[in-house]
Amino acid sequence: MNESAKMKKMNFLLRNGPNYNLNACIGNNGGPYDFGTYAEGFFSSGFLLCENLEGFNRKIDILIYPIFFNFRHGIELFIKHLNILTNKLLQNDVPIIRSHKILDNWEHLSLNLEQILDFSEHLEISIVKDILIEFLEIDKTGQSFRYPTDIKGNRTLQEWSIINVEILKQGMEVIYNFFENCDMYISSLLDTNSMSASSS
């Protein structure tokens, strides 16, 4: 392969900058990343926005849209990521559902987790489900915080009036911590199984 074929795409906007600490590595340059790492990025951006609102709260009425959307997309990606891991661990052939309907993939994941986690942790699954149901009541399809109107031209969020960012953040921390703990635990089980298989 010649040198020009190895070069990565850049343009005037999307290129290296003088402050290398602000160069984000994408694609295979640091990756490839999976659903889990994308989920972490969306959750982290939601948390960062929430944490920085104290000095910037005059914009809260419009910043709630990217905050909520980032959390929603982070949830969707993390559930899909955990479904991939749990399916692999349980040797299931069930594919992830390629839609934005979070509860469809959650139902499958919760069944998998009940087979993997200790019975004492089943309460956590129930708590996360309760938070998810309340969270999704305002945005079942992933459109309400992306666009001011739905595909029929109706204004979104007309039945709602207030979201407290601090309360939202607390709920998202419960979900994120649960997902992170599941990710670490299931990944360790997969690593153990892999080492056992290679040594036998």
Task: Describe the protein in words.
59% of the residues lie in helices and 0% in strands. It is an all-alpha fold and 200 residues long. The radius of gyration is 20 Å and the shape is globular. The model is unreliable at 1-5 (pLDDT under 50).
Mean pLDDT: 91
- Indicate the proportion of strand residues: under 5%
Order of helices and strands: HHHHHH
Low-confidence stretches: 1-5
First and last CA, distance: 39 Å
CA-based gyration radius: 20 Å
**Main sheet overview:** none
Task: Specify the number of helices.
Answer: 6
Q: What's the count of strands?
A: 0
SS content category: mainly alpha
The domain count comes to 1
Helix content: 55-70%
Please state the overall shape, judged from the principal axes of the Cα atoms.
globular
Which helices and strands occur, and which strands form pairs?
Elements: H1 3-6, H2 35-51, H3 60-90, H4 102-116, H5 122-137, H6 165-199
Helix pairs in contact: 2-3, 2-6, 3-4, 3-6, 4-5, 5-6
List the main descriptive attributes of the protein structure presented here.
single chain, 200 residues, mainly alpha, 0% strand, disordered N terminus
